[in-house]
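Notes from hallway chat w/ T.B., transcribed later so I don't forget. T.B. wanted the structure written out for a chain they're using in a teaching module, and asked if we could keep both sequence and structure tokens in one place. Agreed to drop them here.
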Amino acid sequence: MDILVIDDDQYNGQMIGHMLKDYMVEQALSSEDALSMMGQVVPELLIVDLMIPGSMDGLDLIKKIRSDKRWTHIPIISMTASYDALPRVAEMKALSDAFLSKPLSPRKLREIAVKLGLGAVASHK
């Protein structure tokens, strides 16, 4: 797995997979699913939505990932369509390597993925 998308909307995960079709993209629908998957295989990049179900939202998940030595090296792209919780969005941006607003721009997402070092590790499906 090159990229793990954490978003409870399966359609969003499929769209990101299509946008980044040169990479192996998996999706977790909750924070618990993400941590379980990361315990098995460490991804090269995380794409995390702010509004995810489970015991942690996207910000809390990023904080947990950043505090775990196994995962501190993983680049994180955070994303949200919701600006209702602006202080949380600002904190999420600060803890992430990049931030995107939904709806996502395919070109911008690919540019950021390459910038974060994925160009050389693309898996061919």
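Follow-up for T.B.: The longest strand covers residues 45-49. Might be a good example for the class.
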